[in-house]
Model the fold of this input.
Amino acid sequence: MKLKDSTAIVTGAAGGIGAALARRFLTEGARVVITDLDASRLHTQAERLRGRYGQRVAELAGNAADTQVIEALVELAETRFGPVELYAANAGVGAGRGLESSEDDWHLSLEVNLMAHVRAAKVLVPQWVERGRGYFLSTASAAGLLTQIGSPTYAASKHAAVAFSEWLSVTYGDRGVRVSCLCPMGVDTDLLRSGGHDSVQMRAVTTAGRVLTTDEVAEVVMAGIDAERFLILPHAEVLDMWRQKTTDYDRWLRGMRRYQQTLLDDQKD
Done:
């Protein structure tokens, strides 16, 4: 897919990976609608982007998991720029730690990390099938292929996001709908830093591989979209980890338990 003169929507775009994706898409010549729950940060980001890219940027604050917000984003994009050709379901949360995760933590994680994708697909995929083209970019996580030490809510919801992306591709891939699933490890974002520098969850990510900048991730995403590749892995080593997991599940689980214990022991020192 080529993005020049296309129309894209990016959720979770007030900062982090979402903001980097919006910049990258605009650099390619796309027209972009950005959205985020934080209206103030979103407006600041939109003004920054308009200062560089002009009126090819529009904004609408709201909850990316709300169907009415999704429909409003699509309407805004169509009114300002034309039919939506790319939807980047990027908004994500990291609520919940261990079995102490509350029902609210589980609900929020599944709403934002999974159902936001499902509801966006419900709105857009029928249009794309009718037009014969469309692109769905799901930001999941390496946790969706492997796991997330410390957070069952994150691990489960990201696994579900990967599974939904797979299903979309299998079901609609021969009907003009392209799907990519972004699965990075550590990326320098507020979501990573919110875990606290000393938390087992954060150190599980930062010690597993290099922490990338958001612009580095966006560059890999652009290459993946150009190639219409399903699995986009900014950390190439994730593929080897996933292969080790699927080749010998029990061995992988034993290794992950040892890794977790090492992190816990380091935390005590």
